[in-house]
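Z., the sequence and structure:
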Amino acid sequence: MTYRDVTTQAELDAALKEVGVMPVCRGTGTFQVSGSSQVTAYGSSQVTAYDSSQVRASGSSQVTAYDSSQVTACGSSQVTACDSSQVTAYDSSQVTASGSSQVRASRGVAVTVHGTNVKRRGGVLIRVPKIRTAAEWCEWYGVAVKRGVAVLFKGVDANYDSPHKANYAPGTVPAAADWDGGKAECGGGLHFSPTPAHTFWFVTDAVKFVACPVRLKDIIVHKDAEYPQKVKAPRCCAPVWECDINGKPVAPATKAEKAVKR
C-alpha cells in the first residue's frame, strides 16, 4: 500500500482511482468520499463519508459518516455518525451518534447519543434528552426565539438553490410546494439547521448561507430522527437574508430582518 498526501478534493479523487494508493487528507481542506473508498485523515481535515467508505482519523480531524461508513478515530478527532455507520474511537476523540449507528469507544471518549437506536459500548455517555417540541429543539441547539419566531439556516449554491432546487434568494419568502404535513423526516417540506455550520452536514458543497425566519408553531421535530440536527417546516414567515458562516448578515439589514431581530 502506498500512502499519498492530498490537500484538495481533486487530489483525493485522483488518488482514489489508483490501485494500491491510500489517500491521506492533510491540512485544513474539506473532503468528501463515497462508494467503498478508504481514506486516512490527519491534521484538521474535514471529511464527509458516504456509502461503505472507510476513514481513519487522527489529530483534530472532523468526520461525518453516513450510510454504512466505518470510521476509526484517535487523537482529538470529532466524528458525527448517522444511519448505520460504525465508529471505533480512542484517546480524547468525541463522537456524536444518531440513527442506528454503532460506536465502540475507549474510556476517555465522549459519546453523545441521540435517540434510542444507537448501539454503544464504552466511552463516557452523554445522552441527549428526548426532544419532542420545536421549543425544546431550539433550546438544545441554542436557537434564539423571539415573539414565536426562530431564525434557522440553509446552505445553498451560488444561485441560492438547495440541492432539491428550492430557491432561498434573499428578500423572498420560501414555501414548500410538497408539504406533507410533517409526516416524513426527509422530503415533503423545507428543511433547516440551527447554525450555518450545521448545514454542511446536508449540503457539503454549500457556498452561501441564508438566515430563515420560521414560526415555532410550524416547525416539526421528528421522534428518533436519523438526522436530529435538522427540522422541517412548510414555509418561512418573513423574507430570508444572506449571512456568513457565523450567522452575521453579509449586507445591510433589511426591514424584515430588523423586525425579526427586535
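The chain is about 10% helix and 35% strand. The longest strand covers residues 102-113.

Let me know what you think.
H.
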